[in-house]
Write a structure and sequence with these properties.
Blueprint (H helix, E strand, L loop, with lengths): L2 H20 L2 H14 L4 H13 L3 H14 L5 H14 L2 H10 L17 E5 L8 E8 L2 E4 L14 E13 L4 E12 L4 E8 L3 H9 L5 E6 H4 L1 E3 L1 H4 L19 E8 L2 H13 L5 E7 L29 E3 L1
Parallel strand pairs: 1-5
Antiparallel strand pairs: 1-2, 2-3, 3-4, 4-5, 6-9, 6-10, 7-9, 8-11
């Protein structure tokens, strides 16, 4: 190789990693493709191209390059195996996914179809390239989970959605008993049958509200008191790096009678029946409005490295409010 070509490849190498750092994934992928045309047996270029396509949610290309990186590596690297397993899971290649999890020492349900186990409760940051609302989820395999909260309609998600999430934690949340990891969502795999209804009620006291939250009716999935459960975090707080803000909201222990609820239900009729029964069983209870708002999942935004937490890079970004439980 001539000195000139070596300099050209060194420049291309720097450009490829810089593009990844900036979140310009397609630019990075093209640069790694050019590097691989000259060095097809370098595992770290395959790994990096697979990583770029993971964050582009281009699963066939991501799987191919991660498997090639595994094949070419002299030593076991969990990052390559995890990213390959994520791509195999996204593609529904369950035999491949099970082999990859086994190589990582991760125990999953045996069988031939989808993995349906209990991998604990965690938190997922939905659409992390957008507003980044965080909700609790029940993990059914190492990177798939079912949403347990009622997400805000603007997220484009619903209670019961099955989502694919990244393998690396980007923060912690307290679930009432312990701190659990926060993972970035990569993609919604299965949309839930439940719609999201935004409901405004007047509740004379906490016991009245609790009666509504515990009430059941056909077609009702879950009722959540958004007035209490939703908080807005800046990006640094959302990623588990709490700090002092210049202005802190005053707290008030007085009961707030006007409550904002999110109700996951299969029909408006189910919501109306639930609320009518609740109103009839206690004085002072009333329903102010029932609204529905179906929003698409926000369009993917390239151009910033949303997957990097503050422990990896000090962004100092406090501009984005992220609704969180």
């Amino acid at each position: 190789m001539t000195e000139t070509s070596q300099e050209t490849l060194a420049t291309l190498h720097a450009q490829a990693y810089d593009a990844m750092h900036r979140g310009e994934l397609r630019e990075a992928s093209l640069a790694f493709e050019r590097l691989l045309s000259q060095h097809p047996d370098r595992p770290y270029y395959h790994y990096m191209r697979g990583l770029a396509h993971k964050y582009l949610m281009d699963w066939p290309v991501s799987l191919h390059h991660n498997l090639r990186a595994i094949e070419l590596s002299d030593e076991m690297d969990e990052a390559e195996h995890w990213n390959a397993a994520i791509a195999a899971t996204a593609l529904g290649e369950w035999a491949q996914a099970r082999r990859l999890w086994a190589a990582c020492g991760v125990h999953v349900q045996e069988g031939e179809g989808p993995i349906e186990g209990n991998h604990g409760v965690a938190v997922v940051r939905q659409n992390p390239w957008h507003a980044g609302e965080t909700v609790f989820m029940q993990r059914i395999d190492p990177v798939r989970a079912r949403l347990l909260n009622v997400p805000l309609p603007e997220s484009g998600h619903r209670f019961g959605d099955i989502v694919l999430h990244d393998g690396a934690s980007t923060g912690r949340r307290f679930d009432g008993e312990r701190d659990v990891p926060v993972f970035n969502e990569l993609e919604r795999l299965v949309a839930s049958d439940f719609q999201t209804f935004v409901v405004f009620v007047s509740s004379p006291g906490p016991d009245d509200l609790q009666a509504l939250l515990e009430a059941t009716a056909p077609g009702i999935g879950y009722t959540e008191d958004w007035t209490r459960s939703i908080h807005h975090y800046c990006m640094r707080c959302s990623y588990g790096a709490p700090h002092l803000h210049s202005e802190q909201d005053d707290t008030c222990d007085d009961w707030q009678t006007e409550r904002n609820l999110g109700i996951a239900a299969q029909s408006r009729h189910s919501v109306e029946a639930l609320l009518q029964a609740w109103v009839s069983r206690g004085p002072g209870r009333s329903v102010d409005a029932i609204e529905t708002c179906e929003c698409p999942v926000p369009e993917y935004q390239e151009g910033w490295n949303w997957w990097v937490g503050p422990e990896d890079e000090d962004e100092g970004d406090e501009a984005t409010d992220t609704p969180a439980r």
